[in-house]
């Protein structure tokens, strides 16, 4: 139920939104609207099912309709670049946009994936400074995770991907972007069963869509990792993901990407609205919706 301070939808209500295909599963409306309600703002956040073919037209609509800002999810993050008037250095670095801010009709593209991931790892007290990290995946989420790893001081990041050529390209790009602060290496997915490598990693990250598109994760020798190794799945779901289930069976610490989504929600809210959401509200709202207290 709307709070007494939350104005009903009227001719003055302003919108923010998420564009995706599919988009019906998105938890963003829930988080953002909880913050609007708590702050009593005359704003609403909605989800638009936008196909790849309609993305550019939909983005023009953002400026035309005075929509304050939109989040972009699959499959729009890369394609949106060409419709921006300005792109943040971080979005340019990652080659993808997940947040579009409408500044008086000018569309500014940004990317909060790396910052959201970094904030969640800090919240979870996951330390990788001076340590080795193994990451599965070489797409946009993996690039964001790689950037966050450098910012958190990781010494080595091994990027393992089904298409190892893509892992090689990402490793090279990240080395260039981060000025060699982290040693980026690449492998095929067999790295996930390499006991020598697994024996010295502080964290294993799933930045693939395995578990979403497939019901299982790739073969991974969880028990070869140190006891205090942390497993982080960028996917999230109500029930533990296949990647997380394996970590739990091996008695390792594990987290999914729900916290990252909440942190990104917080960052996007501030970008769109110029004010911060009440601290922790978006995270609590999301966790409650996922049945976690
Ligand atoms: P991309 O499409 O850019 O990359 C997908 C990755 O998954 C590639 O590395 C691909 O390998 C790999 N992959 C897909 N299917 C398989 C398979 N069957 N076997 C092995 N590898 C496979 O996606 P993104 O990087 O944008 O997203 C990756 C995941 O991260 C998504 O599930 C997304 O939901 C999640 N994510 C979560 C966020 C959050 O806030 N929690 C934010 C952003 C993303 P290959 O190169 O060989 O095709």
Structural commentary:
The protein is of the alpha/beta class and 293 residues long. It has 2 domains: 14-111 and 262-289, 3-Layer(aba) Sandwich (Rossmann fold); 115-256, NAD(P)-binding Rossmann-like Domain (Rossmann fold, 3-Layer(aba) Sandwich). The chain has helices at residues 28-39, 55-65, 89-94, 113-123, 140-151, 164-177, 195-198, 242-249, 258-273, 281-289, and strands at 14-20, 43-49, 69-72, 86-87, 99-103, 106-110, 132-136, 156-160, 183-187, 201-206, 230-233, 253-256. The strands form 2 sheets. Strands 2-1-3-5-6-4 form a 6-stranded mixed β-sheet, with helices on both faces. A 6-stranded parallel β-sheet has the order 9-8-7-10-11-12, with helices on both faces. It is globular. The model has no long low-confidence stretch (mean pLDDT 95). The structure holds NADPH dihydro-nicotinamide-adenine-dinucleotide phosphate (NDP). NADPH dihydro-nicotinamide-adenine-dinucleotide phosphate is lined by residues 113, 116, 137-142, 161-163, 166, 207-210, 212-214, 234-236, 257, 260-261, 264.
